[in-house]
């Protein structure tokens, strides 16, 4: 616990989080004989899509660390704040799993229904869009594009004997793959 409080104080003093009170964090402590060096996320119902995506983002270390260092205006009810809180909890808490109990209520005033399964690709796009909007006009406004945006070059060539071709370049965040 003491390690956690040292880190919490360090980040709090750097203004990564709104508020100076520990009650702002609403973190649960649970004494346990920790079986693994990692912290899991508790499923709140039909939130496995959200938990798996947050775990993937957390384990993408350059993205995680860049996001945790972002300095921007924070409100408790926004995606960036909630993702940073989850990342911080997964990184520093000494428990088996973290319960993101207030995260579903705080994604930019959009309440997630924990009793309804959602498509992870749809959640991925929405979450990246919300984080990108929160980072606009900051020094980190290209963070999402840097880590996740790709470019697709579609080239249309015409029949033999014709030297004309048409090229179309599109940006993307995810690629759809057909699997039989």
Low-confidence stretches: 1-6, 9-20
Number of extended strands? 4
Number of helices: 6
Overall pLDDT confidence = 77
**Element order, helices and strands?**
HEHHHEHHEE
Helix content: 25-40%
Major beta sheet summary: 2 strands, parallel
What characteristic shape results from the CA principal axes? Answer: elongated
Termini Cα gap: 49 Å
Radius of gyration: 20 Å
Secondary-structure-based class equals alpha+beta
Please report which band the strand proportion falls in: under 5%, 5-15%, 15-25%, 25-35%, 35-45% or over 45%. Answer: 5-15%
Strand order of the largest sheet: 1-2
Structure description:
- The structure is a single chain.
- The chain has 180 residues and is α+β, with helices and mostly antiparallel strands.
- The chain is elongated and about 65 Å long.
- Helices cover 38% and strands 11% of the residues.
- A hairpin with a 7-residue loop joins strand 3 (150-157) and strand 4 (165-172).
- Mean pLDDT is 77; it is low at 1-6 and 9-20.
- It starts with a helix and ends in an 8-residue tail after the last strand.
- The chain has a two-stranded parallel ribbon with strand order 1-2. A two-stranded antiparallel sheet has the order 3-4.
- The longest helix has 15 residues, at 120-134.
- The protein contains 6 helices and 4 strands, in the order H-E-H-H-H-E-H-H-E-E.
- The protein has helices spanning 2-13, 48-59, 61-69, 79-92, 120-134, 143-148, and strands at residues 40-41, 97-98, 150-157, 165-172.
């Amino acid at each position: 616990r003491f390690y956690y409080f040292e880190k919490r104080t360090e980040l709090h003093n750097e203004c990564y989080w709104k508020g100076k009170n520990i009650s702002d964090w609403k973190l649960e402590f649970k004494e346990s004989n920790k079986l693994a060096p990692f912290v899991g996320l508790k499923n709140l119902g039909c939130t496995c899509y959200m938990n798996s995506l947050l775990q993937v983002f957390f384990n993408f270390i350059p993205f995680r660390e860049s996001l945790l260092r972002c300095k921007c205006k924070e409100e408790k009810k926004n995606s960036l704040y909630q993702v940073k809180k989850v990342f911080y909890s997964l990184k520093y808490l000494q428990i088996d799993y973290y319960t993101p109990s207030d995260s579903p209520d705080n994604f930019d005033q959009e309440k997630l229904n924990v009793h309804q399964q959602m498509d992870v690709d749809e959640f991925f796009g929405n979450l990246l869009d919300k984080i990108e909007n929160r980072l606009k006009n900051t020094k980190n406004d290209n963070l999402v594009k840097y880590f996740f945006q790709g470019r697709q070059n579609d080239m249309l060539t015409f029949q033999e004997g014709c030297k004309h071709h048409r090229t179309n370049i599109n940006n993307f965040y995810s690629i759809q793959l057909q699997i039989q």
